[in-house]
Write a structure and sequence with these properties.
Pfam families: PG_binding_1, RND-MFP_C. With 461 residues, this protein is α+β, with helices and mostly antiparallel strands. Among the domains are: 85 residues, conserved putative lor/sdh protein from methanococcus maripaludis s2 fold; 71 residues; 98 residues, Beta Barrel (Elongation Factor Tu (Ef-tu), domain 3), CATH 2.40.30. The strands form four sheets. It has a six-stranded antiparallel β-sheet, with no helix packed on it.
Amino acid sequence: MLVLVAAGAVLLSGGGVAASFGIKSPAQAAADAEPPAPDTLTAPVERRVVVDTVVTRGTVTAEQSFEVAPTGSAAGGSRPVITKLPLAAGARVDSGQAVLEVAGRPVFALPGDVPVYRDLKPGATGEDVRQLQTGLRSLGFDPGGDPAGTYGGATKSAVRAFYAARGYEPLPASPDGQERTTAAEDGVTAAERAAADAGDALAAARSGQGAAAPGGGPAVEAARKQAARTAEDLARARRRLAEVVAANGPMVPSSELLFLSGFPARVDSVAGRVGGQVTGTVLTVSAGALVVKGELDGADKGLIRAGQQVEILSELAGRKAAGTVAGVSDTPGPATAGQSGAGGSGQQPASRAGSGGYQLLVKPDDPLDPGLAGQDVRITVRAAASSGPVLVVPLSAVSATADGRTVVTLLREGRRSQVEVTPGTVGGGSAEVRPLVPGSLAEGDRVVVGTRSAPGRTEAR
């Protein structure tokens, strides 16, 4: 019995000793809860080129894109029904080709940068007329007898021949043009006869006076006045005929013409169908070299300017291409820069759907693969770069003092010191720094970027 009691005492005593390792005083518990001494985080000072980049998304598209939606009245009051859609999406468009037919009337594509904005009729002058003449000449219908930019007789002949070669009859500039021409011709004939009769009467009056009336007398004077009046009437009738003839003849309605900046062009999409009535866009046609159009937010807009270098990346095709910023819009909104305005055939500049950002236009340094058309790509703009290798530290190493100085904290041999610097180019989370005191900061030095106060937790300095 005594042995058992003794054994129990030993066990209780041992249990007390063991329990003493798991029980802590409040002071000890608080001490153990204190965070460990913070570790200083540093980063090396490097010497390299700093590049600041802006990354956004864009779409590969043609420089010029038109939504063709004919708005002109159909000939003879016909309904604006699509009677031909000769091209499918992705098809090539050549100069002089009809891309569409509405109520039996064609829409021809011709080269030109000035948008269609009016009917081109005989007697018209302007840059759009010159474009028409140039396009006709390139197709073998030379209006060389007319001055450049003047729709004269030679241009009328060229237009008539061009339409006939494509199986169409051009519309007359005036529906009653032939009747007006006939009436003007009849007027000239009548004036010619009246002038001839007046000439005969004057000759008879002069012959009847004989030598007795050297001045001609009243009868001769009356005949002379009549002859002068009929001569004026004849000249007026001939001028009128010339005007009517000049204004009469074939015209090119704005609804039948589409000026594109370059050929071959492409059909991007077809929304209409044969037999359907024109209620909006029938097809979209693009022309010119492939470019990339993207958007910038307000923060990035100020960093981008024309002439900056760009990397274009198609993740889908695994291809990269170099380009140059061609321009950034001054105001946010849909892309319109660099595209021709609306024409009479209803061709409106097709714009990339935007979210209200500033429109960015990038032109590739070399022609892009046509297979990239329509693809979404990544645009990386080199917004700024240091002039060469410079001293570089992480952005988190740069701070401002209470008195407004910009400094980095240098850690050498366990001792800290502040080095005043002038910041330069910033990019990729790094900043160029130039020490105010030469030699106070060098490549390979370590600067403080923060502290680690607990495992997995970092605090900025």
